[in-house]
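Q: Hi! First time asking for a complex rather than a single chain. Here are the components, and I think there are two in total. Is that enough to go on?
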Amino acid sequence: MPPDGDALPNPFAGELFLTLAAEGRLVLDPVSADETIAGLERTLSLIRARLRVIRIWEQSPTQRVDELPEELAQDVIDAVFADQLAPGKLEQAAAELPKYIEALRRACRYAQPGE
Amino acid sequence: MEQVRVALQASDPLSQAGLASYLQSRPELTLLRSADRAEAKVLVVSCDRLTTEVVATLRRSAAEVGAPVVLITNEINESELLTAVECRVVAILPRVAVTADRLVHSVLAAAAGGGVMPPNLVGELLKHIERLQRDVLAPNGLNASRLTPREVDVLRLMADGLDTNEIAGELCYSERTVKNVIYGVTHRLKLRNRSHAVAYALRTGMI
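A: Yes, that's all I need. Here is the structure of the assembled complex.
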């Protein structure tokens, strides 16, 4: 495999993961699954926070970073410029990451004995 | 022991013949004729690249036969990997590394696994999840970690409109140090001048 990071038109594959898990083709041990799910939940939480920041920023009448409290300015810059660099990706991620989480939960269930 | 029925499809006659000889040399396997491929327990597909045509064939096979696929190909990128997995590929062998033993091992593992992905392929999918999260939070790989704290300090003051002398005074550095820091940033990030450095840093959320 070449290094990661190819520019993909749609980099998300939530539906594929759900299918793989539903068909029992994706099976994960509980430890790996829990670790990955925890990471995804943290990322999802950050994404939702950034989306909230962007919505508040968009409704701000002046939209001047230097008028924001210093501790807030960096969050606004992170969120707004990340969205400018990859427009729509945060919304897409907010819709797709829960599918990955659900798929990994299902994939983990297959690996547990007695089920 | 029951023989594993294998169907083979290669993109060129030479590969077809070579891989067929590998598969036919083992008593654990039965190589099916093309017409009998629907009875296969494992499909072996060989191609240079995962072209649209190959993907269409794989999709058709996945729908009609539903057997796990051992894919022999050259480099495969992340997008192609996901497509391959979607088409029931459970093992990917680089063309240059294919030996009779490796191929037979992969075919037998695919038959035994019944379509469940082996750990190495699951590992690749987990890498996809990691990369995805990284890309969403830091698009284009840009984040403040590419700048040192000293560089961030200098760029912030440049963004505030201070000249070299004023930045040096503010940060208690010599003018030469400030110039070196600015040169280092513009050179490393291939930026044209100070304004470009400030604009770049602001645009990417570095400062």
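A: Chain A is about 70% helix and 0% strand. Let me know if you'd like any chain examined more closely.
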